[in-house]
Amino acid sequence: MDYNPSKIKASYKKFYQIRKMICRSFSEKFYYDMQFELIAQALQNGDTQPAVVVSRKPLIISAYSDEFDAVVFLHFPDELADVYGLSENTRLAVSDIYLGGGGKTADDIKPGERSTGNFYDFIPVVQLFFGKDDEKIKKNADIFGDALWERVGEKTKEYAVLGKERNGFFYCFKNK
User: 51-88 pLDDT, tens per residue?
Assistant: First the structure.
């Protein structure tokens, strides 16, 4: 599959805004502050892939991976829909990090017929929520052709019936 490095600089201000919405205890805030570098690396080196807003309340984003030919649903605080003026079907870009080296495909990923089989999981990071330069980030959603957006739509409809979603912010820290 084509690798499109994101090359987006991370915004601690945006990271802090989301962390403030969802972290309650000091220790939880401190721990996630220590993980900022992971988000920054994903934005800089991750594979830019399409994503689309499925719903505003709850805020659910469908993030695609061409390596899996599949989507996963990410759940975020509803307030972010207002902060970024998101509506259903808003097109976005994510920076995907792939996890490989063997292993069973994550339970919430349903690989499509175009899956490469090279990885067992992926972690999508929504560029608009964590990156600097909103104009550049919004243009990243425009690099994908109509055929791929149609594919994302098909995969999103298929996935919706599964009733699964990931915590959009905390999923990448699930095994910590």
Answer: 999 999 999 999 999 999 999 999 999 999 999 999 99
- For residue 118, the enclosing domain spans 12-173
152: Cβ contacts below 8 Å, ≥ 6 apart:
50, 51, 52, 62, 64, 71
Give the number of domains in the chain.
1
> pLDDT per residue over 141-170, tens digit each?
999 999 999 999 999 999 999 999 998 876
